[in-house]
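Subject: complex prediction, re-run

Hi both,

The earlier run crashed halfway through, so I resubmitted it with identical inputs.
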Amino acid sequence: MPDEASKSTNSNESGKSWEEQDPDIVREVTIDEYKPYGTLTLTLIYFAIVALMWVFMYFVEFAGNAPSIIE
Amino acid sequence: MHIHKFEQFWIKLSFVLIAFFVATVVYGFVAMDLKVIGDHATIDPQNLADTKFGNPGVREVTRNGQTEYEVYVQTIQFAFNPGTAQPIEVPVDTRVTFYITSPDVLHGFDVAGTNLNTMAIPGQVAKFTTIFPEVREYGIVCNEYCGPAHHVMEGKIKVVPKSEFDKSNLVE
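This time it finished cleanly. Structure:
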């Protein structure tokens, strides 16, 4: 998307595309075009592990550890 | 401030997780009827001799027409009395109420591998009721550091069949 990307060119260097300004940049995207699905996946896996371990710890290791205090 | 929508999502998810933790604890105490040690009574730790703790052991009581047992335990440096010198013997499938206090320093009374676990605080009486569901021996350990021999402070609870329960060891 060179046309769209060149809009973000720095104003004091107008005329030069961002590729010319910094050849290391392969493609520039806006913050909302950036979609870190890998990070999202890892985060969801992490949340799932925490939730499952909580359920195990609370309902199995704690509540299932009879005899318990009944009064 | 602009926050990326993925980031907004997992920030919200964190709050959902906290709400879930709180909800499970509330469920445990409301629906599953879990109990914790409450605030039972205070006592003068210098004068336990004048109380039931002066003659600690297992007592038989009748409550609501049912035979139940009360166990008075002193935790001392570095033993449970009773528990260490002789095991606390109680019958299976019977309500047993423990009263625990300490004349010297802070101790723990943890029936290993169960949810029976309380602090023994000088001046406070810890009380809890339980029913032992099976015939077996349980270990008691002190889980609050109480001095140089804390690590050897242990005792036993012997749960016996009702028919084998020896009432001659009961205290008055």
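Chain B touches chain A at residues 2, 4-6, 9-10, 13, 17, 20-21, 24-25, 28, 32, 34-37, 95, 97, 111, 113-116, 128-133 (CB under 8 Å).

- K.
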